[in-house]
């Protein structure tokens, strides 16, 4: 098989892509992204339902409405997702025990995201010692999710996109800054934050095209559990996107990760 020689003008870009790929392999990026996707499904949705029930007594209906709107679902697909989030009759979501279990599960999710960023930036693992930063980030994430519908409804079309991108960039700037315990300057993190906001925006546009058919077909084949499969696939895609942007952001900053197999999960 003949060797392919990269043209001179493309060698810098080729070298950058190669380094990003090598970094992703070094940090076990795909495995971590898939694990984060699964943890987000078991942690974030229950946390959002508890959050909605505490603030609005909505018990999941508001969350399903937002997902239906975000993924541009209609008809059977929207009905299937609403059914999946409907609470059992007579249940009380906002119980103390349930809330504590949700927090424990959510912290497992934050530690997984934290470890991804730590590996990308070549930092020592802090684990439970950084739980406070994880809780702070979860609070910020809930605030962002809470104000996003207001931005969608109140902003004129001409300024909606730049304001939404600015808010998303701020979220993805604070995410590694907090989860890394402020060990990396926000100036260094800024390019990765903007990249994450942009790529996730494009991912959202693609989701509005793909997800209605995926949810509808999964629900038709497997019932309500099929909706869970579709949402898990979507969250895994989001996690892979975040992982890729974290890898590229760290490579842009010129950080070199060190192999730390001894303290791996």
Can you offer a commentary on this structure?
The chain has 265 residues and is mainly α. It has one domain (19-263). 77% of the residues lie in helices and 0% in strands. It contains 9 helices and no strands. Helix 3 runs antiparallel to helix 4 (75-85) and helix 5 crosses helix 6 (131-154). Residues 256-265 have low confidence and may be disordered.
List the helices and strands and how they pair.
Layout: H1 11-26, H2 29-56, H3 61-70, H4 75-85, H5 96-120, H6 131-154, H7 157-179, H8 186-222, H9 224-252
Helix pairs in contact: 1-9, 2-5, 2-9, 3-4, 4-8, 4-9, 5-6, 6-7, 7-8, 8-9
Could you give a short description of this structure?
This protein is mostly helical and 265 residues long. The chain contains nine helices and no strands. Helix 3 runs antiparallel to helix 4.
